Every structure is written in structure tokens, then in C-alpha cells.
Amino acid sequence: MADVVFLTGGARSGKSSFALKRAERYAEKAFLATAEPFDEEMAARIDKHREERGDRFETFEEPVDIDATLRVIPSSIDVVIVDCLTVWAGNLLYKLGSDEIIMNHVDRLLAVLQNPPCNVILVSNEIGMGIVPENAMARKFRDIAGTINQKVAGASTEAWLLCSGLPVKLK
After folding, report:
1. Quick one: which residues bind GTP (predicted)?
2. How many angstroms separate the CA atoms of 64 and 71, rounded?
3. CA distance 120 to 5
């Protein structure tokens, strides 16, 4: 059975670097990117991530239907990094809106993780440790991201918290 590794932590905590290092042990690697370049800052972040992983990873870009993309990962791939679930949560909220439709997408991802096509490393931000957001939309996003993190961590074979670049094994 393939490993499902969940990585979480705050902004700039070292999650993506840890994921890339973790994936280096595998010969054939893929990267499933959920971000879209909706402004110059995001475009620069995407370019930086592409540069960091170089040509060592086959890249798939999918902002919403990550379960469908995982299902068609070539059988030659040993590991895929999904980066990141928090951006995916924002995409789902922005593009789909409905809690029921969003949770349907989450359930579809969980179904893939029960029997993944290869080893999977999922990166997500921990955003629930701060102050309560001041507006309803931000609170809804925080709650959706927290629910996704709980469900994916529960389905994982390993879970890690990154803090100040240091990995702490949770499970």
C-alpha cells in the first residue's frame, strides 16, 4: 500500500521544502499544483516553486478536481506532492461556494487516498491557530480549511507539523 503523508504548518514554516526533500527518495516524482496565477504576487510564488523543483518532477496543474488528476497519474510515478490543500480550499470556496459541493470534492479526494495510485504527500497550511477572522467569509474559509485538514490527516499514514523549519511527527 502506498503512503499518504500529510504536512501542515504556518506560512513559511518549511512545509514545501520538507515535501520536496521527502519526495527525493523516489525515482519518478510528480507535483500537483493547485494555485492559479491570479495576480503578480501569486505568479511570482508559482515561478519560485517551479524553480525550486526544477525538472525533477512532472507537473500537473489542477485548481479544483485534484481527485480526478490523482486518478490519472501515470503508473510510472512513485510519488506525487499535492501543494497545497489550503489554496485548493480557497479555490473550492471561490469557484463552487456551496458547502455541500465543497464537501463532495473533499469526499472524492478521501476516496482516492484510501487506495492512492502512488505515494502521496499533501501540503496544507494550519490557519486555525490565530485570532478569529473578523468577517464571515474568512471564518467560512478557516472552517473549510480546518475540516479538510482534519479529514486528510485522519486518512493519512503519517502526519507532520512544521514549525520554524522543524518537523514534528504527529502520527
Report:
1. 9-16, 33-35, 50-53, 61, 83
2. 14
3. 6
> Beta strand pairing status for 158-163 and 4-9?
parallel
Which pLDDT belongs to residue 97?
81
Binding residues for GTP: 9-16, 33-35, 50-53, 61, 83
Query: 20-65, pLDDT tens digit by residue?
Result: 999 999 999 999 999 988 889 888 888 888 888 888 999 999 999 9
pLDDT, tens digit, for every residue of 138-151? 999 999 999 999 99
Could you tell me what percentage of the chain is helix, strand and coil, using 3-state DSSP and rounding each to the nearest 5? 45, 20, 35
Locate the domains of the chain by residue range. Answer: 20-169
pLDDT of residue 48: 85
Active-site option among 3, 26, 28, 49: 49
Please confirm, yes or no, whether 105 is among the known catalytic residues.
Answer: no
DSSP 3-69: -EEEEEESTTSSHHHHHHHHHTTSSSEEEEE-----SHHHHHHHHHHHHHHTTSEEEEE-SS-HHHH
Predicted confidence at residue 118, as pLDDT, reads 98
Q: Domain 20-169, what fold?
A: Rossmann fold (3.40.50)
